[in-house]
Description:
This protein is of the alpha/beta class.
Amino acid sequence: MSPRIHCVRHAEGLHSLNTPHNHHLRDPSLTAKGEQQCHVLQKKFPAKYDIGLIVCSPLRRTVYTSLLGFDNIVKHGVHVIAHPDLQEISDLPCDSGSPIALLQEEFAGLSVDLSLVTPGWESKQGPYEPTPEAIRARAAEARTWLKAQKESDIVVVTHGGFLHYLTEDWTRANEHVGTGWANTEFRSYTFDEATQNSLIELKESRDRRQVIPATAAEQIQLFQTTNENWVKEGLMGQKVEA
Length: 242
């Protein structure tokens, strides 16, 4: 049986202050407000789910969101696995990670598994290029990896832009800066039995945010429009056809 996937956008990072000037900050951590958002997340996240795994982008703000926002789960032995496929879409300094040696030093002694993070993961080259084609491919790889895990409920902590690629849902994509997801917003999904590698948002998750699912044709149009805007904003290297 495929796992349920609970997607979470990271809490507020230092790069979000005084934007776009703080976008030059390399791999920024959380603000004080972001840390408080994590405490609120821990209280709001449904206790009924038996979370057996937490997977996050290796960027510092997502790792700390995982550790602080799900501290009650981590204390009970659930580890946080950092997965490079979950990193953010652009090659701006704020969306580029830290070398593995620095991460190993910073998170030594904490429940963070960095075994999937390899040297050069932060280069934004190859599979991590800031192009729609490359991002689409690694989002599919991430879904395949998640589907293969044995846990019934998995938390995925990642970034606002990448979440649209991971979930293939482009509704309200420009509601916030570069995303339709608010900080620490969470949505729950199951795998589509028909396609095997797509996510379908659970009804209770849709009801919680009071949205009506877009049609396939609407998603294609939203994908094209959003990516054209992101190309203009310098987040993407080129335009892609749906």
